[in-house]
Structure formats: structure tokens, C-alpha cells
Fold this sequence. Notes:
mainly alpha, Hypothetical protein af1432, disordered N terminus
Amino acid sequence: MLVGDERLPADLSGYGGIFHAAECVLACGDGFGYPDGKGAAKLVIDQKTLPLPWSSSVALTVSDIRFLFEQYGDVAYSGEPVTQLQHALQTGALAEEAGADDELVAAAFLHDLGHLLNQQGETPTERAVDDLHQYFALPFLRTVLPDAVLEPIRLHVDAKRCLCAIDDAYIRQLSADSVRSLALQGGVFSRDEADAFLLQAYAQDALRLRKWDDQAKQRDRATRNLSHYLGVVERVMSKGSIVRLSAM
Length: 248
Ligand SMILES: [Fe+2]
Ligand SMILES: [Fe+2]
């Protein structure tokens, strides 16, 4: 499935997460401090197709992203010894240390922004809740960031399912919460599912991001600050050319 495919596929499993996420945004009282989110969510549900010709008014700005981290970043990261903000900063730092380009550093930093938009409490997996966070931020970033950022975010959960299928050592190092969420997220891919995953554009970036994600749970690890990573996001946004898979 390509994000740029405007036809609605018979199997909605790939898009279903977006629809569910949109319904959650609509059901949320104050839009999590982001009132325009409701308009975006309604468009998702009404049009039942992606990508949407959204106006820029429904896009998150760098200030909105700063607001989300400043407001909600100190929520614990699902049973791990870090907060959501620390986890985002550490994932971004690991991407930088690995020499990733700005787009992948931005993806690493933003990969769990969906947790801040769809807040389900500190450890939703213990209540058997899959918050579908990999989809949640995408409707709000599509008009301002390219697929090189959005696709690794969208794929970072499936990347875990793939790595568990192709790398015997990988599953043994997952945290308890990651193992719990793996089951809720559909479990380990079959070999065929893993092969299909690996054929997708940005699959390799998603695998790299996933490994940084798994490591970014260290108590008191020093990183650059929020402004630094917002600066990376701003640099990517300011390039101005949104590359879509459908145009490739
Ligand atoms: Fe995640
Ligand atoms: Fe994460």
C-alpha cells in the first residue's frame, strides 16, 4: 500500500489506523490543545482517501510541536525509565550519531508524536490498548513534511514486527512493554509479511529508526535540547518540496 494511492483499497487494514485515529481526535474534547486537529480528522473520515488536499491551516507548525512537547513531554514513556520528551530527544540523538540526514533525524525525533496527540495514560498496553500512535500524527504533518520523514514514522511499528521475524536476537532485547505492545500490534510478521515489508519505500529507514527507538530508553542520558531538534524539523520544513511516494 502506498500512502499516495488515492484509491481506497478493499482491505482497509492499512488505512484503518488513520480512520480510528481520526475518530479519536474527533471524540477528544479540546483537540489536545490543537483545535484544528478536529477539522483534519473530519476530513479524514469524510473523504476516506489519502492523500488529502488539506489546507495548510490543519498542519502542525514547529510552535505546535514545541507546545505538545512542553505541555505533555513529561508523561512517562510506557513503563520505561524515560519521559516522552527524553525518549524523543534520545531517538533523535542516536539518529544524529549514526550520521542520518535531517529527514531521518526529524523522523526519529517525531516518531512517537502520536502518543502526545492521542493520550492513553502512561502504559496503555497494560489495559490491552493499542493507541495506533504510528498513524496519529501523520494527518497533521502531511502538508509540511516529506515522505522521507512521514514514512519511517508510519512504518516504525511494523519495523519491529519485521525485525522480530528476520533477526533472532532482536526479540530477546525488547523491553517488557515492547513485547506487550507487539502482541497488540499484530505480532511477529510471517516470513512473507516481512518480505513484503522490506519491499516498501523507506523500509530500511524504518528499520534503522526502530533500533534507535529501542535504545532510546536510558535514564539520564545527555542529549541536545528540544530547540535543537525543532530546528532540524524546521530545516526540513523550510526545504519546501514535499516529496510524495505517488510522485516517485
Ligand atoms: Fe512508537
Ligand atoms: Fe518510541
